[in-house]
Amino acid sequence: MALYHETAGILSEPASHGGSLKTKVFGRKDLTSPPAQVYALALETCKWSPVLKEVIDNSQLLKDEKKLTPVLALLLVHDFLLAKKGIALPSSHGLRLSVERHKARIASDFTRSRLRRKCSTVDALREQVELSNNPSPVHPRWVRVNALKSSLQEQLETTFASFERVATIQEVLVRATDRLYVDEHIPNLVAVSPRTDFSKSQAYKSGAIILQDKASCFPAYLLDPSPDDGDVIDSCAAPGNKTTHLAAVIYSRRADQAGRPAQQVIAFEKDQTRAKTLEKMVRLAGSHDFTSLNLGHDFLRTDPDSELYKNVGALLLDPSCSGSGIVGRDDMPELHLPGKPEAAGKKAAQDSRKRKRKDPESEANVLVDDDGNTTVVGSEKDLQARLKALSSFQLTLLLHAFKFPSAQRITYSTCSVHAEENENVVLQALRSDIAQERGWQILRREDQVEGMKSWPVRGLAENPAPGYDKTIADACIRAYKDDGRGVMGFFVAAFVRDGAAVQSPTSRRRRSHMAADGTVNDSAHPENKADLSDKDSDDEWSGFDD
Ligand SMILES: C[S@@+](CC[C@H](N)C(=O)[O-])C[C@H]1O[C@@H](n2cnc3c(N)ncnc32)[C@H](O)[C@@H]1O
């Protein structure tokens, strides 16, 4: 019932407050309507608002219905004209009647608006509205070909058979569909137009392709686990993009190309709900028979010296962070308001002022981290406090990883742009007692896997913290969301022990063998709480996008 009033409240807030629409909706603690429904209604209404404004103005709805505010009118007319089930209110509800009383006029003005835009059908108009809301996208849709189920060549010949191959990301972005760029840094990765819809694609539904931002592919690729590196831990795994990427890398490099890999991926996910998504994703990606899932398990509670982890040679750490690099966080779509007769306009302004007085949180910025948790950040001080708490957790996680006795390689990544969560965590980790004791060092740029070595965007050039130098800055890898490279904001660095990375792959393998007691345990992980082989394989796949 409150859906329309609550959505109108959010859309009436000043654009400068509370960040993106997503932040505004999901950051509210006082919504009685499902936030996802509020978000969808608000977003769609914004997109359609140039058309709806015209319809409302031409039909003179606001003149006849004095109780309607311009925003409420947009929301109601949106649902009346475009929602499958119409206005989500009982047929006798006053708000619904205020629109439906004028249905003939509204419908004919909608037809006129459509024809004025030269669209013969509502679907054609829908397409035009989508296009006009995203006139020049800067982020392509990145598609990782899942080596467990397919190959780049196979996908080029099937899913992308009709796509024209182009040499730059920009060429992908200028046309609506059917252009494809094969990435130069990450193997098995392609970029297509963000408007490409894969929801009906067989390759997507079967897990042969996975939608994953390029930068999100950096950690598994940089970790570069070889067949003899032993088991690999993913400490913070859900929804599973990096877990399944790790599995694909391991699978492609397995010693016995006829069988499954001898090494395991051991994944931890603390959050029970997110763990279910991880489980689905691992199954769909086809890596369940060599991925041990510790669903609902806190990685920090593992005992690194346990027998269970004696073969762990590499760890991927992708902990919760502020999510400040995530694409789309800043976006607040434009709302075109219909004209309002003078008196009612004053009332709407008064209503809006009342709402704000009642809700002090609407004056603050809301930070939504990459797990979807929200924190009200009213000032720079609040932000610093949040970053301090996050970075303290991130450092704890990294130091815990340093303790695994056979570990030789670790990657640490965030989708944050803040140095506090990135270079500063790396520096503190390098200076820690455990790093000195166990010989952990940064993996220098020159020792990184080819595509990461050649990636041009590196750590911050300057950092006031003592010990930060050019080698460390160059070893750190960054990505920015608006620099034309078409990626999200991201950070990753890798650690190695005792110069392991500067040795040849063969000697690296020998070291790992020694560290892992010369054995590779390929049996099911004893801590595995999910017997995946017994699960129904027909789980519905809803897809994951970074
Ligand atoms: C940034 S997300 C991971 C994204 C994931 N690596 C991917 O690429 O799909 C961080 C995840 O770590 C989980 N997490 C946070 N602390 C954890 C801990 N101590 N142990 C295990 N999981 C943890 C969170 O619940 C969240 O799902």
Automatic annotation (TrEMBL):
SAM-dependent MTase RsmB/NOP-type domain sequence ranges: 131-498
GO cellular component: nucleolus
Positions contributing to S-adenosyl-L-methionine binding: C236, A237, A238, P239, G240, N241, K242, E269, D298, D318
Biased composition annotated in UniProt, kind: Acidic residues: 536-546
Keywords for the protein's UniProt record, in alphabetical order: Methyltransferase, RNA-binding, S-adenosyl-L-methionine, Transferase
Entries under InterPro entries matching the protein: MeTrfase_RsmB-F_NOP2_cat, MeTrfase_RsmB-F_NOP2_dom, NSUN5_7_fdxn-like, NSUN5_RCM1_N, RCMT, SAM-dependent_MTases_sf
A GO MF label: RNA methyltransferase activity
Family annotation (Gene3D superfamilies): Sun protein, domain 3, Vaccinia Virus protein VP39
Family membership: Belongs to the class I-like SAM-binding methyltransferase superfamily. RsmB/NOP family.
PANTHER family: 28S RRNA (CYTOSINE-C(5))-METHYLTRANSFERASE, NOP2 YEAST -RELATED NOL1/NOP2/FMU SUN DOMAIN-CONTAINING
Protein name per UniProt: SAM-dependent MTase RsmB/NOP-type domain-containing protein
